[in-house]
Amino acid sequence: MSAIRNSLVLLVLASAMSPSWLIISANGNVLPLFIKWHVYIVNGLSNNMTLFIHCQSSDNDMGNHNLSPAANFSWSFRTNFFHSTLFSCYIRKDDAQATFKVFWQDPVLFERCKWKNCIWIAKEGGIYIRDFQNEQDEFRYQWEALAGC
After folding, report:
1. Cα–Cα distance list, 35 to 31, 48, 83, 101, 109 (Å)
2. 117-123 and 36-43: which strand pairing?
């Protein structure tokens, strides 16, 4: 019985220290800790251009991938208990590159991703996230020219 009481006290303390755990979305989603998230990186480049990607978190390295036009790379995960899950990607096209966050603890991001699918699209004009709430691709990051290009 003492172990159950100690576990309950620990759970209450953890909840109090982590208010993002109790976020409730407009759609009624709760407890981001238990949601299985999916991140997609999409090659939306034209001119038959290949997109190189390398994505990782502090715990997981997704490896190097070359995406042909219109192809995508995806992975799934659950956030960690401390709500510090962070994934970032380095992507490169023929003449430019970008490094950016693709998942972090943020209620605005959760809404953009419709509490499940974060879709990032590399286009000529920059890097976009699919905003499901407004049914559009939202510009988020600018390409950086490669040295010597």
Report:
1. 7, 36, 12, 19, 14
2. parallel
All residues at 6 or more sequence positions from 56 whose CB lies less than 8 Å from its CB, including other chains? 62, 87, 88, 89
Q: List phi, psi (to 5°) of 116.
A: -165, -50
Dump the DSSP string for the chain: -HHHHHHHHHHHHHHHH-GGGG-B-TT--B-GGG-EEEEEEEE--STT--EEEEEE-SS-EEEEEEEPTT-EEEEEEE--TTS---EEEEEE-SSEEEEEEEE-S-HHHHHHTTTTEEEEEEETTEEEEEETTTTEEEEEE--EEPTT-
Q: Which of 47-56, 81-90, 113-122 has the lowest mean pLDDT?
A: 81-90
Per-residue pLDDT tens digits for 6-17: 544 444 444 444
Which amino acid is it at 142? Answer: Q
Query: Which residue has better confidence, 48 or 4?
Result: 48
* pTM score of the predicted model: 0.78
**Looking at this protein, which amino acid is placed at residue 143?**
W
Please indicate whether residue 17 or residue 112 has the higher confidence score (pLDDT). Answer: 112
